[in-house]
Amino acid sequence: MHRSAAVNAARPVPFQARGVSLAHGFGDAAPASGRASLRTGSLFLLLVAVLAGCHPPSKPIPTPALRAEMRTPVVFVPGVTGSKLRERKSRRTVFGLGVNVLLPHDGGYDIAFPIDANDASRLDAFAVVDRVSFGFKTVEVFGPLIALLQANGYQVGDLDSPGAAETLFPFPYDWREAAPETARLLSEKLQRLRDVRGHERMPVALICQSTGAHVCRYLVKYGGASLEEAEAGRAGPLPWLHVTRLILIGTSNGGSMRTLRELHRGRRYVRLFGRTLEPEVFFSFRSLYQDLPCLRRDLFLDTRGRLLDVDLCDAASWERHGWSVYADDAARRLARARRTDLFGNAEERRVYLRELLEQARRFQRLLRRDVEGFGSTLYFMIQDASRDTPDRAVLVEDDGVWRTLFTGDGEIERRPGLRDLVTAAGDGHATVASQLWLSPQERSAMPRAPYYVEGGHFELIHDPSTRRHLLEALDESRP
Asked: Where does residue 310 rank: exposed (0-12), middle (13-18), buried (19+ CB within 10 A)?
């Protein structure tokens, strides 16, 4: 049987760790065959596609079109790095162009999110990334998805000034911001659409890619409320909004250890000649902390495969193990750069990290909670289970200095037994168990099992079967 058919024949079975006593861990699927390079986020994967010479997706699959007034509007919410950012004053694009990805200026300091929240408005998001041109090659990003829906009867509109006949709304947003704040922004824009369409209770379908699912799931459960309001029971599903369908594509609902790797090491999008987006820049992105698996306490092993008692979302763990801004290289760059306008001083960074980690833990708890008035939203999932994916990390102490090893590192790959303990099936970014990390209410809202596509965290959105299943999920004539 072909692997994708085999995976779709049944839901994943619980994962039994070998040689480790695990508590509070995810369930997981049986290990996937083969090894694959690791991928994360949205644009983080584009250069992999360039170097691999991937081809544009095939033509859209047509389905009978409905009249505009009968069609439920669709909003597309991309994940981290899926929207273009520009300076408010100069209108200069600082992220979303080929040059920004290939050669980020000053290690990416252009797109750092100032840790002083009162100074975070220098940039704004103005468009979903449709394609990225590197001069010698153009790589399609979300353009084919938008074209697919247009070819099947949807009319593209703008949530800032929506028209009554428009039915497809890409939602660009500042992906550096925390998910509840983005959910608040989206709820305000949907209220504008509701006013234009004249609905007392407006139906809408949400397509959520990667970490866009954090925004969408929070919106469905708590609208645009703050964490404090949601925790106090003063928030729930918006009474004027009916999310008919929530389609999750390549999502990490329970968080990702790949995110810790990027926060700790930064990333170079193009090997050999590309520049690195430094870890201190990742450190500043509020959204990334909410993609950490903060509700787990089984994430770290020693070199003998024994479980270590390390709390990922305790700021003291970051200082002790030298993660991100506490690594020697990052600390030296921060000292040289003297960019306190972006990264504050040492004590301000400590407070910022402590607050964001605690917020991330609270956020994950809220998403795991069932809510009153959840309604009749149907959940559909399109995921990948064919890639080796980081599930845990190994901590090594050498002369009082800690190193953190992940799936893909040579020291891990040379030890198959240890590699098996830190690696699980998934899409390269999120394990299958993380993809399924939903509340009981949400699981009950799934009319069918997740559909698994071989393609990787980002690339699966371009697969022809993904497009077919996306259209089927949007078809309200189907059960």
From this structure: middle
